[in-house]
Design goal:
Helix 6 crosses helix 8. About 2% of the residues have low confidence. The chain has 394 residues and is of the alpha/beta class. It has two domains: 129 residues, no CATH class; 249 residues, Rossmann fold. It is built from 14 helices and eleven strands.
Amino acid sequence: MILYCSQQHQKVHWPLHKSLCKCIQSIMDSQGSQYFLQKTRKGYSVEEWCKERSNVMLLTQLQLGRRLSEGEQQMFMFPRVCKVCYEGDQEKLQDCKNCFCVSYCSITHKQQDFIRHSMSCHWLKLCFYVDKHFIQAKDPYPALNVPVRDKYEPLQSDKDAFMSVLMKYTKDITKWNMSIEVALLSELLTCPLTLLYALEKLGTPFNRSSVIHVVGAAAFECTFLKKWEIILHYLPQLTCLDIIFIGPEIEQGFETTCILCVDCQKKGRELNTHFQYGSLYHQYATSETFLKPDVIVAYNCGLHEYVGTDTDTWLLSLPFLVKFNQTPLILTSYTSDEAYRDIARILDYRKDSLTVYLKCAKNPFASKRPYRDWGSENCDVFFQNNFITLVTPH
C-alpha cells in the first residue's frame, strides 16, 4: 500500500507508519489475505468498489482509535490495483509510466482502458507532482500580488481569462514551474473570483458594506484567508466585508484573522471573518448571532448527494438558502451532472419564485488544480468550482 525510494526513507518514516502498518496487517491476518484488498472483485460496480474501500478505511480507523491523515486516506482510496478488474496481486501489476497513478494486471486491460485513461493521464501526472511539491516545499502556495483597483473594472470571462489573471498575480513568473504554479494560484483565487464573476452577471451595484455567507464551508474555503481580500481589491467602493463561514466540517484551529495590505489599511477598509464551528445553515439562520446576508454561496455544494438518507445534512437548510428575496444564491459543482442535480433540488423546493441567471454553466474561474477522484467510473480527476449556478429568489 505504501512504497519508498530507499530503505533509509523507509526507516525514517517507520515511527509514523508503524501503528497503521500493524493495524492493516492485523486486518489482513483476520481475513487470511496475503495482500491488502485481496478479495476477488470481478464484476464489481464502481459503487461496490467504493463501498468496500470505505468500509475497510472505517474499520482501520476504529482499530487505530483515530482519524486517518489525508495521506493515509489516499492509501485506501487509491490502492495499487488493476484499474479494470481491481486485481490486487502486486506481482501482476504494471504502472502507467507517465502518471504512475494507474496500474493494470495485463496488456489486455491496459489496451481496454487506453482511451479513457488517455483523457486524464496528464492530469494525474500533475496530481502526482503537486502532491510531491507539498511534501518538499516549505511554503507550497505561491505569493499573491493582487493590485488594488482605484475604479471598478469588469472581470474578463473568456476561456483565457483566468490565465491572464494568474499571470498578473505572481511576483516572478520567470521562476515558475508553470503547471504547478498555475494549479495552486488558481486554487487560491477560484473562490473569490467565482463569487465576483457571479455577481457581475447580476449587474447590480455593490454596497459599501456587504455580508457573505459561505455555506457548507470546510478547509478549502477557510484556509489562506488572504485570498478573500481580493474582493476588496476588485471593488473599490466596498469598505467593509463580513464573511461568515458555516459548515459541519469547520473545526477549531483555522486562522481567524486576515492582516490586510498597507493600501487597504490606509483606506480604513475591513475584512471580518466569522466561523460557525460545526453548524448547519438552518442552525445558524435561527440563532441569535445571525447576520442577514447580501450573498449566499455554497462551493462544491453536493446538495443532491444524500437525498433520501439519514445523513442528508441539507434537508433542513434548503428553505433558508432561498428564504431572502433578492439575495443571490451561488452554487458550484465538480461536474455538469452534479450541477443539474443540485439545482433540481432547489427548483423542487421553490421553482416559481426564482430567477435563474446561470444554470449549470462552465465556470471560467474554476480551479485548474486536479484532484484524484476515487468514486468516478469515467474520469479520474475533478476540479473545484468547475460548474456554476446563480439564482435569486423574488
